[in-house]
Amino acid sequence: APCRGCHRNSLDKITAKTRQMEKEAKELFKSYLTHQGLLTSELRRLCNEAVQWFPTENITDQPKIVMLQELYRTLVHMKDALENIRKQQQVLSTPGAALLGKLESTQWAVRGLLSNTVCALCLKGILPNSRHTPERAAATNAFQQKIEGCKVLGNYSKFLEKLARDSGKKAPQALRDQKKRRKGTKRVEDSSRS
Amino acid sequence: MGHFSSGHSIIACLGSNNLMMLSRHECSYFLTIFTLPETQEFLPTFLKVSRNLPLQRLLVEWDVSDLAHQFELEMVFDIQVSRSEEMNVVWTEYYNTTLSKLNKTLHWSWDSELPLECTSHSVRIRSMVNDERFSKLWSSWSQWKTVLDTSDDYTPYIFPEDKVVEEGSNVTFCCIGGKDSRILNFLFNYTEYYYPDSNTSQRNMVITVNKVLHAEMPGIPAFCNLSGKGNKNYSATLLFVGKPPHEPKGLSCDTRDMTTLTCTWDPGEDTYLYGSSQKTLCYPETETDLEPIRCSWMIGQQMIYNLTLTAQNPLGETSANFVLDVAHRGKGFPAPFVQSNSYPHLTLGGLQPFTNYAFRMRCGAASHFWKWSEWSKTIRGRTNEAGKLDVWREVTPVLGGRNVTLFWKVSPGISFEITLEKLGKASEPEHISISALQNSTTISIDNHSYKISVAARNNIASSLPSVIIISRVDHTDLEEERVNGTVDGIYISWKATNAFHGYIVDWCNFPRSQLCDFQWKRFDFNTSSCLINSAAFMPGVRYSFRVYGSLANEDFFLGKKVGYTKELAPRLNPQGKITEMSSHTVTITWDSYPINESQPGFIRGYHVYVKTMEEECSLKGSTKHALSDGTVLCKYTVENPEEKRYVVKHLMPETTYALAVKAYTGGGETPIDAYIRVDTLHDISYLFVCVFSRIKDCCCPEIPNPNKSKALSCNGLKLNSEAVMKLTDCIPDTIVLENTSEANTLQLWSHGTILERESKVINPSWVYFVQKEEGDLMCTQSAPEACTSFENLAYSSQIALGSNFYQNLWMSEKSEPQLSISSYQPQHYTEIPSKDTVTSLREITEREDSLRYISQMEVPCSEVKLSNLPHSTEPLEHSSYKIQTVLGSELVTSTSDEDIHSQDSSTSSNSTVLLLLGRH
């Protein structure tokens, strides 16, 4: 019952979804920069600053379960951050601005990926830690809010880029691993268990 | 009153009243003399500077010595404002004031163009007594009083923060770098500003952007790029550029129902200031969530409203006032009626008779016309024939004449006058007056022809009479025709001929009700069909339509059509009764079943269902009918609804069946809810049981000697060879012959059936009963010679045939038989046990699986009809009949009341073979 509705191939779905979301994330970031007047190099530099809760390391190098847990944790943060950005923009933007539509679409995508991640963890017998304090908007003034949003979207875009690129690389490797596993190569089994 | 001396002293002479107020007890007359030096200096003291940031205003407070206040001197203060650490004086002002004894603190304020946050601001003041008697000398300066000392702050700032400004205004920004940092550049809306060379300090920067324009972004970033130490090397803010609200245009208020007033307006051009602050507040508050440009209020008795519409944003506010008279803003419903005098109806004159018209309406206020309502729905109608009432009649034959019921459409305020005239007879016309409220009346007439005239009458005049002729005979005996209906109505058609001027179709909206709501519709001469519908039409109700051809004033009945908008399955089940029964047939009847208009559909026929108790029914001539629970019934169809009887054939004797009859209509039938249980009789006709042997030949003499048979020799029992059939005989098949005499009915069991039920070993299919006409039975086995094959289980079942079958027959006779054993004599019939014994045997059989009974007789098989078989008491010489009984290994009670000699049935023989004589 805890894995109800989960597809067996949740991992494959994550990989496919990540690739799709990577493009969307880039577009969203670009749209945000344009819409907020942040295209100058000085301001973009601010957007490139690291957001604390994004993983610093390449999570695809981690064991599968650690990777999934990290992905889950990041997406939960992202979900809150997106909601904050959307709320800010709702106050600031022209009704019906394209950015609002893109933000909303990304929110759905993140929820989808989160759901797949929960499934993948569940299928591995792990219940993700649901204890989580919602992100509060730390920024004090309108400019800081703008930059916080930009940072989140910039980091998110980079995060997905890395994830999509590395999982794409991993895919053939995983395939080879599978083949080897079928032959009963012990080394591969060990690495997969690690 | 006081006065001043020549300039060096002031003598204050205080009035007694004043003094009394101040110090009543101490003095009555008091004189004090103050002297001031000519060069008296009143240095401003207690200088305080603060900021009101929202107003970008410096607030300055100070004081002078009490003495100055005491003399209520007129003074002038020189106030300097300087910025930054360098104390660049940016403002100097002389402030004149007359001091007051009561209010001692002095106030001054200054509005800064540069955001006060941008840099530190310092103020100093000096004073001078502004009196000719004194030498006008400035006091020395007070100390500088500074606000916002950022000199030691490492945090960078930018001002103003998140400011909203009007498009086209000049905006001054200032950047303040943290301590030890340097401003590199300032960036606003993609334009870079560099530090002006003239400015010596690079920690602060003031930039004025002229004529700012709105940008397509929510807040234009203003960004100071810094270098040097500090935890943050930039300071930035957003500038919101927009426009103050425009005066709302096109305020439009109206009411559709005189209860709710709704106002909308055009907010005008874009102000470029968006966000959640953009909303409408309606006062007094309304309950509903409203769109940004709409307010609605409930209105009461008040007609005149003074409305104020105010638009506000951070840049300003505009208002517009309106006086509104609700009575003039009624937009009206798109309703079919308008207020016309006091009665909501309009009478349209000048229409053509017998003409179709379509009507629609809209309304507007008669006085102070505001606007038209939307159009109402279109309604259509046809005017009557010129000046005549639309009258129709129904004729019902009664004893000695007819009842004529006249119908017309009621119009308020109009009464009716009926004139009845017998045609062909010189008689006085009869006049009947009918009140305005009635829409029908019934007149009794005899069988003669009558002319009936109906005229409508109001206070002023009478309409032309509508004439109806009732002829001598009303052709009402035409056969009714079934018509098909749909949810859209019932389609009626007739054969249009040139003989008639028009056609009339009449019907009842509620045919099952006493007040049938009689309806009629007229059609012109070239119409030959119509779709009749009414909101009153219900599925499962049979409607009857009569079609008349109209010629002059006479109407001729053309036919009756009956139909349903939708047929339903019959609610009433046929009450089936079993009226006849035999061993193979059951007759079920349901005589009283009605097939009339009370049914919710036309009864198309019946289904007779037969259910067997154990398994799927598969009777010959039936179709299979599976129920939802998986039961499979046999289904027979009776297609004639008048036929209320059915004979179910091919039944097995002595078997329980369940029967049900269902009537079906175009709407189908209801599920079976009850069965009639019936047990077929025992077979009382001749039965010809032909046991189809699987022994290699029909006439095989090579039957092993029973005495050598294992079956017979088991248990070491030595049977008397003479008690066993002769093997040299043509071995007979198993024949059972029953007496047809009712009094001497023989009962037969096929134990094979019983055994089959119990052990599933026996397949009875090898017993063939072929019924020919008159109930004759024939053996299907057509042997070339007059011989029969037989199967004796005792011999062959397990040994020779392996898996072959048994046929076990048991015979009995109800009447007390006279048994005699006459060995080897052909006896035409036998009877073994009495009825009681049979019962006991049967019980045993049912108890004991191992028990086997076999009766075997020998008859000529070939081409022998059972009816031709001897069944008289006369012995047949040419054939011998044998009954062979094989009993199971268990102890069996005696098979007969009579002692069957030569058999010791009480012995534990496996097989008892008896050859018994039939009765005489």
TrEMBL record, chain A:
Keywords: Cytokine, Secreted. The keyword Secreted applies. Pfam families: LIF_OSM. GO terms for biological process: immune response; leukemia inhibitory factor signaling pathway; positive regulation of cell population proliferation; regulation of cell differentiation. It is found in: Secreted. Signal peptide: none annotated. GO terms for cellular component: extracellular space. One of its GO terms (molecular function) is growth factor activity. Residues 165-194 are annotated as: Disordered. LIF has the capacity to induce terminal differentiation in leukemic cells. Its activities include the induction of hematopoietic differentiation in normal and myeloid leukemia cells, the induction of neuronal cell differentiation, and the stimulation of acute-phase protein synthesis in hepatocytes. This is Leukemia inhibitory factor.
Automatic annotation (TrEMBL), chain B:
InterPro entries: FN3_dom, FN3_sf, Ig-like_fold, LIF-R-like_Ig-like, LIFR_D2, Type1_Cytokine_Rcpt_Type2. It is found in: Membrane. The keyword Transmembrane helix applies. SMART domains: FN3. GO terms for molecular function: growth factor binding; oncostatin-M receptor activity. GO terms for biological process: positive regulation of cell population proliferation. Residues 570-683 form the Fibronectin type-III domain. Keywords: Glycoprotein, Membrane, Receptor, Repeat, Signal, Transmembrane, Transmembrane helix. The keyword Manganese does not apply. It is a single-pass type I membrane protein. Residues 894-913 are annotated as: Disordered. Pfam families: fn3, LIF-R_Ig-like, LIFR_D2, LIFR_D4. Belongs to the type I cytokine receptor family. Type 2 subfamily. PANTHER family: INTERLEUKIN-27 RECEPTOR SUBUNIT ALPHA (PTHR48423). This is Oncostatin M receptor. It comes from Chelonoidis abingdonii. The lineage of its organism: Eukaryota, Metazoa, Chordata, Craniata, Vertebrata. The gene is OSMR.
